[in-house]
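---------- Forwarded message ----------

FYI, see the Ketoreductase (KR) domain-containing protein record below. Original note from H. follows.
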Amino acid sequence: MSVLFKFLYSQLFVTPPVPQHDFSGETVIIVGANIGLGLEAARHIARLKAGHLVLAVRTQSKGETAKRDIVASTGISPDAVSVRIVDLSSNKSVIAFSHTIYAEFKKVDALLLNASILPFTFATNEDGVELGVATNVIGTFLLAILMLPLLRVSATIKPVHLSIVASEVHAFTTLPEKKHAHIFNALNVNSPDFERLQERYNVTKLMQVFIARELAQRVDCDRVIVNFLNPGLCHSNLTSTAKGWGSFVVETLKYWIGRTTEVGSRTLVHALSAGKESHGQYLSDCKVEPPAVFVTSDEGVKVQKRLWEELTEILENVRPGILKNIA
Ligand SMILES: NC(=O)c1ccc[n+]([C@@H]2O[C@H](COP(=O)([O-])OP(=O)(O)OC[C@H]3O[C@@H](n4cnc5c(N)ncnc54)[C@H](OP(=O)(O)O)[C@@H]3O)[C@@H](O)[C@H]2O)c1
């Protein structure tokens, strides 16, 4: 089935089921929980009796507003919801957040890496790294790997979950920067491509798929289930930075066939309760689906290895010894 046909079929004819998983006693962290899909996923998980919910956000006041909203709409105790600060675009912030979680929680049953940005202009973080790559890729996997030891020890009765919110747009690119000797370095150079539709966003979503697959190969699914998912095209704040034709196309599609934020968020909650069959897999419409053809092609397999090697070198520089966290 072509990517486009699959996309249209899914948007027009598939409605992900309302989540029913019981999160009683579970500590769940959602990164990017103040608006959009993360907020609605948090609301579902609160309704499904989460033991403790951590709203990981970059602005305290936005997190507190989200907390009040979730408490009022679900009846969850305010004591069972915490707001903690993390900015995925900053390695320092991610490391500080992980220290906070280790200090405050003896166990974490689910970590949802949901926050991403859709960059349309070239901008860099405090370390001079392009913001899309810094946030969607480096910060996301820095946090995943920092949290692995805590996740592993939390799996006493059943495996815990580490889920990454990817996207079907990973299939809309084959990562043009793969022609360069160093992919991450090539991505740090401004180019006219940057403002072409959502090229950078698509590239970072493809990188998430490759790196999550590689990470899953090194993680025991009896302890930590690593999966990544596609929520479908949904109403949210994500495309508010978009400009020109890219913006027009996406907004028109959203108007006609976009899922509501709540409906899209069901796929996030599903990933956090999916079984071992989802380990290392791409979930779309709450089912394991093959990723884009490029991902499993001979060339894709090589690109995946290169990305893993480059990323782990970067992370080892950011946090020497971090790779020991991967069993
Ligand atoms: N909406 C769709 O159609 C769609 C489709 C496929 C995949 N996705 C994926 O779904 C996920 C959620 O997106 P969404 O549509 O809900 O977008 P959204 O409405 O823009 O929400 C994104 C969330 O991420 C947070 N965030 C952004 N940058 C951050 C950073 N540096 N550190 C920490 N948090 C940060 C935002 O916080 P602030 O409020 O502070 O900005 C917000 O809470 C993303 O991974 C996106 O790629 C969305």
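H. also flagged this: The pocket of NAP is lined by residues 32, 34-38, 58-59, 62, 86-89, 114-117, 135, 165, 167, 231, 233-234, 236-238 (CB under 6 Å).
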